[in-house]
Amino acid sequence: MCVLLNTDSVAVFSQPAAPAFEVPSVKAIQDTKTWAIRRVDAQLYRSVSNVMQTLTWSWRVKNYHIPDAPAWLGQERFEISATIGHPVGDDEVRLRCKNCWPNASG
Q1: Total structural domains in the chain?
Q2: 48 lies in which domain range?
Q3: What is the DSSP string of 47-86?
Q4: Confidence of residue 89 (pLDDT cuts 50, 70, 90)
Q5: What pTM does this model have?
């Protein structure tokens, strides 16, 4: 048996990297008075919220869509600041937030 391979026409395909924030910073905070703050502009994402709020905003779901979630998801608060590097819309910012939680999709 003879097998011929023409390597001149072989292309190597790779998946593009998932969009991610360029310079993310996540800090635990003790602020219990401030409700969720989310500022999204063309090149900056800033959030002061708990993990549950960030997940539900990113995935466009309600709290009850995340069954058996540990209580701390809705209690501990974080300040998230990140740069994007170029102007993007809300949908891409949500995608970048989703990529911060790689196991959240199941």
Answers
A1: 1
A2: 20-98
A3: EEEEHHHHHHHHHT--GGGSTT--GGGGTSEEEEEEE-SS
A4: confident
A5: 0.69
